[in-house]
Amino acid sequence: MDIIIILVIIAIFIMILMYLQAKHRAKEDFSDKILSNKLLIKKTMNYDKVFENSKYSVWIPKPINDYYPIGNYISLNKKPPSEMATLVKNNSGLESNDKPIKYEIISITNKNYAIWKPIGATDQLSLGHIVSKEYPSKYLIRTVPSKFCEKSIVNNRLIKNKISSFDKGYELWSIQNSNLFICNNINNYNLDTLKEVYSLKENSLDIEKKLYIKSINSYKKICSYKDKKLDKKFYVWRPVPPPNFCSLGDIILTTKSDPNGKLRSIVVNKSFCKIPLNYGTKSINTLKTKDKSINFWRPKPHNDYYFFGDIVVVGDEQPEADNLIYSISVDYIKNINKDIHALVYNNISDDNPISLWSDPNHCFKCSNSYSNPNKNNYVLNMSFTESDYDLSDTRKTLHISYNKNKNFKKINETDLLELVKESISNKLDIRLNRLNNMTLDEDNVILDIEPKSSNLNELTISKCISKLNKHIEVEPLKIYNKNKDTHYISLMRIFNTEDSNFIELDNSHFNTLKE
């Protein structure tokens, strides 16, 4: 009998194990299906030089682990391109089809280097041309599945290069929504090459590990400055992140309003961040007042990392620590085709010109001239981030008027507020911890509604307010005792706090603008 019981237990254990394995395989298959609908990429700003002449130079991005370039990049001088290059994940093995099946010569340069057009396998596209003296290796670059590409057009002619009296030469053209290039042989006068142009489809791109971020509203004031001659002023604050999260830089404001509890800033989990290599040997520039000097320092990033702004030090010493500002990988940023930096301060001086430029999230950079020091319009790519909360759902503070029951029984204020929280939570069908900072005055219940979770199907704050308001308009919300046989107060009407008291996080440059 004992043997039968043991065999039954073993059989049940085997069945459970088989079920768990099948469930795991199904999960893996589902994940693979999701990934197959996205092109995994990385970005880099590290290049090797391929070719140069008196007019331009050609560069190829350096691969990173299992990620490879999709073409060559042009610089109109001898320096590497200032733009980021996109790398795509390699497909390994005999069945992979992401390597060019051949190359076709488009033209010859005046140094006997050839400009080649990669030809992809079926349903694979080449997104740009390359330069090589020898026939290129098929492992040099990668082609891209056509489902991840979209038709594009040539943008600007970068170069027109005549080879000799009998060779008209070639043109190099930039591609819209791409940093790659294509070549047109002028001798052939065949414009077909310029018609079949493609770029990556932005909403088809993904990354292996999302950037973990939070939104905070806690700050430490660093300094303020007033230019009495020009009647200009600015205020610099430093975000105070929660444990294990990092600030992306000081922020600059032109109003005296304290941003604590009002302005939302993004901070990043420490595992994704790097401290500066250094801050240089001296500050970018200095503003002096009677009793202090304000120095602007620029952090130097590690390879393929990026800082959104500069920091401020009050006094003439170097920054007191190496963790005042953090950088993130260029994988998580994108360039947008719109000027996003605004001038927030400039002096008028021939000897010491200075200007300060702010991005939409108030990170700033200092310039030793009156020109914008930002060569590229880089913003955080919100598509490559994840957070516990929906960052587009901004916390709101509500004042809800109430009337006391005529037969109001005495109750501890804390207990009453707990009953109010439970009643509103039940009426809206939301989590209790979305209702915080509750207080009571003579006329109103005051509370904060927290943003909805990014991982749950919840009501947004605006929908919560609308739903509660509709209910109260029909019938006041009565706050009952535990026995439900009498009520203490009735919630009557909702008031939003004045918008002018709040500075909201600007997400417009995160999700709506294209590269």
List the defining traits of the structure above.
disordered C terminus, 4 domains, 515 residues, 4-stranded mixed beta sheet, mainly beta, 5 helices, 5-stranded antiparallel beta sheet, single chain
In a nutshell, what does this entry contain?
The protein has 515 residues and is mainly beta.
Helix-strand makeup class: mainly beta
Query: What's the helix count?
Result: 5
| Distance separating the two termini | 72 Å
Tell me about the largest β-sheet: 5 strands, antiparallel
Which strands sit side by side, in order, in the main sheet?
37-38-36-40-39
Q: Provide the residue-averaged pLDDT.
A: 87
Backbone shape: globular
Give the amount of beta strand, in percent. 35-45%
What would you report as the Rg, rounded to the nearest angstrom? 30 Å
Secondary structure: elements and pairs:
Blueprint: H1 2-36, E1 39-44, E2 47-52, E3 57-61, E4 67-69, E5 73-75, E6 85-89, E7 102-108, E8 114-119, E9 124-125, E10 130-132, E11 144-145, E12 149-151, E13 154-161, E14 170-175, E15 181-185, H2 192-195, E16 198-200, E17 205-206, E18 211-216, E19 219-227, E20 232-239, E21 245-247, E22 251-253, E23 265-269, E24 273-274, E25 285-288, E26 293-297, E27 305-306, E28 311-314, E29 327-329, E30 333-335, E31 342-346, E32 355-358, E33 364-367, E34 378-380, E35 385-387, E36 396-404, H3 413-428, E37 435-440, E38 444-449, H4 461-474, E39 477-480, E40 487-496, H5 508-511
Parallel strand pairs: 1-17, 18-35
Antiparallel strand pairs: 1-6, 2-3, 3-5, 4-6, 7-8, 8-10, 9-11, 12-16, 13-14, 14-15, 18-23, 19-20, 20-22, 21-23, 24-29, 25-26, 26-28, 27-29, 30-34, 31-32, 32-33, 36-38, 36-40, 37-38, 39-40
